[in-house]
Design goal:
Length: 284
């Protein structure tokens, strides 16, 4: 009973702030609210306008490219780094700290750092050209065709360390007898990881997927700090679309419609995960 009473403030906060705010946002997405919320309902007009706006469609395309590459490279690089760390290498704590350190930085700091690194005058391109390779070109943030990949590099730099730590924790949780049996049977290390370790790390992969996917949907500050959504709309993202319409265009109805679509995208990820994690346990 004491624990239940202590949980009351948290429950009230969740109901009022999160659940209440969510329903408030969804409700007013069906209105023509501008600077201030109004109750003038317009049905699905805001959603029709949203999906007919070129800026929103470009942001969805950018999010798809960024999200797909982020998921694939985060998992691959994070797993490889974790497998290397799992070999009980010397100075493991030092290497793990160095790789994890970028995750301690905010996306604003990460964006500014990589804005300088990818700057054609002061960054990688400028350094290489100063060494004599005058024809070397590496300016992804200034090329609309590949600008989104410049943002991807910064995102991977920050997130890969966390993925590595989660994967490493999953590997260290596997019974050492399995490794001994694999070595006795003469199974190569890479086959042990691919056919034995990965299937046993299913809960870790699912949790990691949820964390990465939810961060992808709401990516905002990294883009703002690094490119501001440019050049043009090359790195525009849904979260930035919401912010701009809410505070700059002063169109709350359109911003709420866009944020509701983002909420739906997160729900598509969270609900299957919750079903797999808690539904299977309940059936068991």
């Amino acid at each position: 009973m004491t624990a239940k009473i202590a949980a009351v403030p948290m429950i009230l906060t969740a109901l009022v702030v999160f659940v209440g705010g969510t329903f408030w946002t969804i409700t007013y997405s069906f209105t023509k609210s501008k600077l201030l919320p109004t109750t003038d309902f317009v049905g699905l007009d805001q959603y029709e306008r949203l999906w007919s706006t070129n800026r929103w469609m470009v942001s969805i395309e950018n999010l798809f490219i960024y999200g797909l590459c982020m998921l694939v490279f985060c998992f691959v690089i994070g797993f490889i780094l974790a497998a290397l760390m799992d070999q009980k290498i010397r100075f493991e704590n030092t290497f793990r700290t160095i790789i994890l350190y970028p995750f301690a930085l905010s996306f604003i700091v990460t964006g500014l750092i990589w804005q300088w690194i990818l700057n054609p005058d002061f960054g990688i391109q400028g350094i290489v050209r100063s060494l004599g390779w005058e024809g070397f070109t590496f300016d992804p943030l200034y090329n609309p065709d590949i600008a989104i990949f410049g943002v991807l590099i910064a995102g991977l730099w920050q997130a890969t360390g966390l993925i590595m730590v989660l994967m490493l924790a999953g590997m260290r949780g596997i019974d050492q007898e399995i490794w001994k049996a694999a070595r006795v049977d003469g199974i190569p290390a890479w086959k042990t990881y691919v056919f034995i370790v990965i299937p046993m790390m299913r809960p870790v992969f699912i949790t990691t997927l949820v964390l990465v996917a939810s961060s992808i949907v709401r990516v905002y500050d990294l883009v703002v700090a690094q490119t501001g959504g440019g050049p043009g709309l090359a790195t525009e993202m849904p979260a930035k679309y919401v912010y701009d319409y809410m505070f700059r265009a002063q169109n709350l109805g359109q911003a709420f419609a866009a944020s509701t679509m983002m909420l739906l995208a997160v729900a598509i990820v969270i609900i299957p995960w919750a079903y797999l994690e808690f539904g299977s346990k309940k059936r068991g």
